[in-house]
Amino acid sequence: MGITCGIVGLPNVGKSTLFNALTAAGALAANYPFATVEPNVGVAAVPDPRLDRIADIVNPKAIIATAIEFTDIAGLVAGASSGEGLGNQFLGHIRDVDAIAHVVRVFDDPNVSHVGGEVDPVADIETIHTELALADLATAERALDRQSRRAKSGDADAAAAVAVITKLHTALAAGDPARSVLLNDSEKPYARELHLLTAKPLLYVANVDDGTSPEQIAAVTDHAAAEGAAAIVIHGQTEAEIAELPPEDRAEFLEELGLDEPGLNRVIRAAYQILGLNTFFTAGEKQVRAWTYRTGATAPQAAGQVHTDFEKGFIRAEIIGYDDFVSLGGEAAAKQAGKWRLEGKDYIVQEGDVIRFRFNV
Question: Residue 299 and residue 311: Cα distance in Å, rounded?
Answer without folding.
Answer: 8
